[in-house]
Amino acid sequence: MENKKEKSLAKEMFAHVDYETQRCQSMKEHAHNVAEYAQNSCQMPELKPLVYLLGLLHDIGKLGTANQADFENILQHGDQVHKHGLDHSTAGGRMVQEFMTNPSAAEFASTASYFHHGVSDCIDLGSGKSLQKSRREKEIEYDAIKEKFFQIYDKDMIKKCCEEAASAYQYMEEQIKAFVKRYKSKCGNGYFFMGMYLRTVLSLLIDGDWTDTASFFDDVPLPERISNEETQEIWKQCIQNFEQYLKNEIQKNPANGNLLNVFRQEISDSCRMAADTEQKLYRLTVPTGAGKTLSSLRFALYHAARTQKQHIIYIAPFTSILEQNAEEIRKAVGDDSVVLEHHCNVICEEGEEERYRSLTETWDTPIIVTTAVQILNTLFSDQKSCIRRMHVLSNSIIIFDEVQAIPVKCTSLFHLAVNFLTQFCKTTVVLCSATQPTLIPFEKNNICECTEMAGLAEKYATAFKRVEIVDATDMCDGKMEIEDLSNFAVEKVEEYQSVLIVVNTVSCALKVFEYLKRKYQDETILFHLSTNMCPQNRLDKLAEIKNTLLDHSQKVICVSTQLVEAGVNFSFGCVIRSMAGLDNVIQAAGRCNRHKEFGKLGAVYIVKMSKEAEKLTYLKEIQNAQNALQKVLDDFRQNPEKYNRALDSEESVKAYYWNYYHFQLEEKLSEYPIKACGANTTLVELLGVNNVGRKQYERTYGEKAKTKLPQAFQTAGQAFEVIGDTHKINIIVPYNEEAKRLIDELSMADVRSGACKKILRKLQRYTVGISATKREKLNNAIYTLCDNEVLVLCEGYYDEDIGVIEEPKMETNFM
Q1: Are 78 and 65 spatial neighbours (Cβ–Cβ below 8 Å)?
Q2: Which region holds residue 476: left if phi is over 0, alpha if psi is between -120 and 50, else beta?
Q3: Which pLDDT score is estimated for 758?
Q4: 301 touches 242 (CB < 8 A)
Q5: Cα 289 from Cα 270, distance rounded (Å)
Q6: What are the tens digits of pLDDT across the range 349-389?
Q7: Would the pTM count as exceeding 0.85?
Q8: Poorest-confidence range of 130-134, 254-258, 495-499, 691-695?
Q9: Alpha carbon distances (Å) from 119 to 42, 212, 360, 461, 713
Q10: What is the C-alpha to C-alpha distance for residues 71 and 345, in angstroms, rounded to an integer?
Q11: Strands (E), 367-521
C-alpha cells in the first residue's frame, strides 16, 4: 500500500495539464491507462507483456525538471507558453536498457519507446550513427527521473515486467527463426519481420497514448473497445442478414442472369465451406462477374464467427469500385453501423464528422471497407496516424479484391506483409481476382502457399465464357491512329450495338472521343470517362451509361481509360482494348456481355496504337506489360492449342505472367527501388537488412553493426507512396450547383475553423488531380482560397463530358 508521501508525489508529477479547466493528469494515471488500454487492445497474446511495459515507461521523461516546469508554466500562463521539442521518450528507453537483461529484447523495447513520437532510422543513412548509441549519449536527467519514477512505482514490479517482456521478445524471435528456416529465406528475412513486429507494438502504444490523452483533454472516460463477445454477436446477426439478402436479392434476381446464378451460387457455397478450414491464406480466382465480393464476404463472416476474429477488412484498389461494393456490403450485412467506409470521398451527415474522423483513426469497427492506399500506408508509411491502425490488422480477415491492381513496385512489400499477417498475426487473408498472378517461385520475397477457395479457375471458364478475345494488333500494321480506332469502333457498333473503347492514356481517350463527336454524334450516343473528371462527375456518367445500355435499340460508344476495368458493373456488346497487359485485357472483357444477355459471345479486340497516338515513353510499366503480352500473342498464332485456343485461358494467363516477371521486370523493380543518400537501394532492403546503413555504420564506428534492428524506418516510410506523383496538384472544379455553392461557402469560411475543414471534405468529390504542366497551361484559370492553400478552377474551364479543359467554353445567348 502506498504511503502518503508517494500519493502526494504521484499527484505532483504531471503527464498532462489543461489550462482552461486547470485540470491535471498525473504520470501514474496516464501510464496506467496507456498500459492497460494498449494491453487490452492487443490481439496477439505474446505481445501483451511488451505492450504493458512500454505503456508504463513511454512518458517517464516528463518527470524531468524541464517538462514539469513547462506544465507549471502552462497552468499559469496558457498553452501559448508551451515549450515544444522537450525530450520525454529517451528516459523510458534508457530504463528498459538498464533493467532488461536480454540485449536484443532491450534494443527492441527501447526503440519502440524512442519511436512513440515519430519513427526514425535505426542507423542513419547519411552519418551511419546508431539510434541506440545516440540516445545513450544524449544528456538527460536520467538518475533524477529514475528516482522520481520509483517513488511512484515499485522497482521489483518493473523488473518483473521487464522479465516478462523479454520472454515475449524471445517468443517473437523463435517464431521468426522457425519461419525463415521453414521457407529457407525465400519468403522473407528475419529483419523485415522483426520490423513489422516493432510496428505492431508501436501501433498499440501510439493508440493507447493518443486515446488516453484525448480522453483527458475531452474530460471523458477512456472509451471501451467492442468486446470479443459483442463482436461474436455481431457476426451471428450479420450472417443471418446476409443469407436472407443472398436469397432475396441475388439468387432470385433475373437481372443477374439466371444461367450464371447457378454457378455463382456454387462458388459462394465453396467459399462458405472454406470458412470451416484451417488455412491462413486463400486465393479466390474466378471469372469477372462471378460474384467475388459477396462470395468472399460470405467466407469472411462464417470464418470470423468460427475463429473469433475481431475485424473483417475489405480492400479495393479504386474508390469507384469501393463505393459501389461498400453499398452492397452494407445491404448484405443488414446493419450500416457495423461498416466503416474509409476513403477520401466519404461525405458525413451533419454532426457525424468528428465520430467518422475518430473511427478512421482507430478502425474500431467490425467491418472496414477501404482502399489499397489506406491499408498499404497502414503497413509502410512513417505517418503516426497510419502506424496507429497497424494492430487492427491482427486477428482479422482481410479481403484484397482485384489484387492484380497492386502496383508492381509494391509487389514484394505486399508479399512480405501478407506473410507477416498470416504467419505471425492470427490473420486470414483472401486474394481475389479474375487474373491472379501465377505465384512463380523466385529467389526471395515470395508469398506463402495459397489455397484456392473455389477450386481451380478453369472449372468455371466454360460456364462464364461470355466473350472471345481477338488479336487485332496487326490492323494498320500495328500503328493504329486516332482516326483508325474511331472508325473501327463505329464499324463494330453496327454489329454489336454498344462498344467500349479502353486506351492507355487520358490524352488518347480524349482525342478519340472528340473525333467521334465531330464525325458521328448524330448517329451514336457517345460517352467519355477520364481521371480529368472529378469523382462525382464520373459516378454520374457511370449511372447514365448503365441506364442508356438498358435500351438495346440505341447505339452507344464509350471511350475510357483503364478506370473502368475493375469492378464497374456495366455490360457492352463489344470491347476494344488498346494493348496493355493480359490482365488488363481480361478485366476489360469483364465489361462485355457480363450476364450473357446478348444471346451470343461478345467480342474483345486487342489493338495496337501508334507511338504518337498514346505516347507511352514515360509509362514503363505499360510498355513492359505490352512486351509480355506480345510474346503470348506471337506464340498463340503459332500454336493456339497450347493455350486451349483462348487468350483468356489459364494457360495464357500463366504464360503472360511468366513472361512479365522473368523477362520484363528489371531487377528489383518489384522491391520498390529508390535512391537514398546517393545510393541505389529498395524499400524492401531498407525495411530489412539495410546494407546502405550498415556500410555507413562501419565507416563511422570502424566495426560491423551488431544489431537486430538496423532498419531505416523513417527514410523508407517517407519514400513510400502507393500512387506516383503523376497527378500531384489538386484543384476544386465547379462541376455542378452544389460544387459552386460549396466553393462560395469556402471563400467566406475562416481557414482555421472546423467549418472550413467540413466544406473541404465535401469538396473532395469535386476535386481533380492535374499535372504541373497542365497547371501552367491553365494559369489564370485557377485562383486560390484559404490563404492560398486551396486551388479552384474558374467557371467555363470544366466540361462534364471531358473534365478539366484548357480553353473556356463559349456560351452564346440569343435574344
Answers
A1: no
A2: left
A3: 81
A4: yes
A5: 16
A6: 555 666 767 777 889 899 999 989 999 999 999 999 999 99
A7: yes
A8: 254-258
A9: 20, 21, 21, 48, 6
A10: 40
A11: 367-371, 396-400, 428-433, 451-452, 467-471, 498-502
Taking the C-alpha atoms of residue 447 and residue 282, their distance in angstroms, rounded to an integer, is: 11
Question: Is the pLDDT at 5 greater than 50, yes or no?
Answer: no
Q: Is the pLDDT of residue 441 over 80?
A: no
d(Cα 341, Cα 807) in Å, to the nearest integer?
37
**Secondary structure (3-state) at 679:** strand
Instruction: Please report where in the chains the cell 501465377 appears, as a residue.
Output: 438
CA distances from 138 to 15, 86, 105, 129, 363 (A): 22, 13, 21, 13, 37
CA distance 594 to 276: 31
Q: How far apart are CA 49 and CA 201, in angstroms?
A: 10
Query: How many angstroms separate the CA atoms of 260 and 249, rounded?
Result: 15
**Cell triple for 346:** 466519404
Are the CB atoms for 420 and 448 separated by under 8 Å? no
List CB contacts of 5: < 8 A, sequence separation 6 or more. Answer: 151
Q: Show the DSSP H helices in 246-279 as ranges.
A: 258-274
Distances (CA, A) of 212 to 4, 36, 118, 392, 413: 26, 10, 18, 18, 33
DSSP string over 591-658: TBSTTSTTSS-EEEEEE-B-HHHH--TT-HHHHHHHHHHHHHHHHHHH-GGGGTT-TTSHHHHHHHHH
Phi, psi of 141 (to 5 degrees): -85, 60
State the DSSP H helix or E strand holding residue 156, giving kind and residue range, or none if neither.
helix 155-183
Q: For strands 602-607 and 574-578, give the pairing.
A: parallel
Q: What are phi and psi of 793, to 5 degrees?
A: -85, 135
- C-alpha grid cell, residue 140: 538527460
Q: How many CA atoms lie within 13 A of 176 on its CB side?
A: 20
Query: What's the whole-number mean pLDDT along residues 557-570?
Result: 85
CA–CA distance, 59 with 87 (Å, rounded to integer): 10
Q: Alpha-carbon distance 618 to 624, whole Å? A: 11
Instruction: Give which of 715, 650, 809, 711 is closest to 112, Cα–Cα.
Output: 711
| Residue pair 425/419 in contact by the 8 Å Cβ criterion | no
CA-atom Rg of the chain in angstroms:
29
Alpha helices, DSSP H only, in 275-400? 292-307, 319-333, 353-362, 372-380, 384-387
Residue (of 683, 777, 768, 675) closest to 729 by Cα position:
768
Instruction: Extract the C-alpha cell encoding 307.
Output: 475463429
